[in-house]
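user: can you give me the structure for this one chain? tokens are fine.
assistant: on it. calling the predictor now.
[tool input]
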Amino acid sequence: MKMLAAGKMSVPTRAAVTLSLVIGLLFLVSGMAAYFDIKRQALDEALIRLDGQNRQVAELQEGRFTRLSAAHEHAKQLLLAELAEGPSPDDARNLDTLFPRDRRGGRRSSDLLFDGGRTPFGYVRGVGAYIGMEPDANQRALILRATRVAHAVGEGIRPDLKSLYFFTPDNSLIMFAPDREDKLGFYRKKAPGNLDFQQETFAKISTAALNPSRRTRCTPLVHILYDTSGRTWTTGCMTPVDWNGRHIGTWGTSLLLNDLLSADELNGFRATDTVLVSAEGMLIRHPRYTLQSEAGSEQLLDLKQTRDPQLQALWQFIRSNAGKTFLGHAPRLAAHVSMRTIKTPGWYVLTIQNEDVIQAGALRAVARVAITAFLCLLLQGIAISLLIRRYVGRPLARLTERTRILTRRFQSDVDFPASARPELDEVEQLGHDFDDMAEKLTRAHLNLEQQVAQRTDELHRANVELSRLADCDTLTGAPNRRRILYDVEEKLALRNPRRLYMLVIDIDHFKRVNDTYGHLVGDRILTEIAQDARSLLRDNDLFGRIGGEEFMALIETSGPEEAIIVAERLRSGIGKTKRIFADGAAGQMTVSIGIANAHGRLSFAQLYAAADAALYKAKHRGRDQCVIEEADTVN
């Protein structure tokens, strides 16, 4: 509502403003109080939950590594007890039966040991082995005894631990893993005769130099030995075996990354990240950085060397709190953290929750307050509506009738300021304004018609410009994909397809320009090349931009030789032009061109697919060349 006189406001307006201010202030105060109170409660509950989750993971891992260490120790004692009995006269025959010689060198385990069958020491299954060097009598005894112990102890620790293996310093390895999908094919069938794994991390930590205490030690996250793709991550725990003061081998168990903490073990850990880090600063597990199927992440694993800011902050946090349990807010990580140590492997386990999660919980509580505020404001609106109906309704009824008369007389609505009458109330003033507006509308009718005509002409010009823009690429000015597709289809229908050739032109290494000099330079280079290409083509040749750094031309020639000449003129003309990039940097940009004949292609899609296939060959053969379908490269 407007002012009645200087400084005087209407009654409905004053009531609405006053009530809105009071209720709004109350809701603002109550909402802020609720927000801070619930945020504090959410923080307390989050820390309790984080610590409980962290303790659960630490206990779970400690139990797993304790059982693993106990299994290794049990296997170690069994093996030493059997070795104390000395070699058997049957060892040579049993070795030839169970571990026949391989033509590539060394020996491999027989299929019987993995598939299952009777052996001199009972029923055995799930065992695969690689024997590097031809063993002597003591080594034969060691291999056979280790095979029996690996099977006996391995069966006892399933399914908690999925593998148990024994390897020697002379590159012999016996593994019990009956559930492996590859059926231990690498060691049984594929390993080369000169396999040497003594420089692998799992072998090094078994040596006296790196493990003088001769205790169970675990590797950081590494690629599994037989996986050349680099997509299988594992950590292994090794227990060295010494006999008569000499290192004769090592018991080991590998844990795949997904087996360290399975989805079932993390069930219920919502909106949190569980991280495992070794005492040496090697990243063992992180849900956003270590993925079982992801290769090429080695640079992230060593937290002491990583350049990732988040991982650097993580390692700084661990170093500053090493050797103690932590529960609270970590500013460097912008999160709340619970951290403790897993004693057996010496790893740190961290449970991390982003502070935004707690903030979101508090905001949800504020939303509930906001709903309450909305309901109260709705009641306020009803009260104001009743007041307006009582005190303003009748004058508005008369105003409505006058508005209807004006609507019948004039089909358009033009806003003209009405003269103010301080002695009139709100409704009477509105009536006066409408009367005055009616008189002015009559005088403005002709002017309105002129404006309508002017706007109609402007709209027509705008539509013409829009039609032009719809057919042109806004960056290069060349015809866009929509236009070039229409023109190609039209030519295919009217011309002799044998004389039509499509050239698909792709700028080589264009992404480097964008990455090095920025998209503004890339856009300029793209425009220059489009202009150069258009100038190198004939007037009757079609040319346009397909998308990205790819262009297309449709030319009419006497045969493939002329098509290649046109394409070569394009390639060489663009390639020899010096391009200015930025800050004085300059160079040439090259293009690859795929050529396809329109004969037998009834649509744009078919012809484009053939030319694109030829372009792919040009790219595959080294770029900066023209390739015509089913033809050799033309340089």
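assistant: here you go. Confidence is low (pLDDT under 50) at residues 292-296, 631-635. Residues 11-83 form the longest helix (73 residues).
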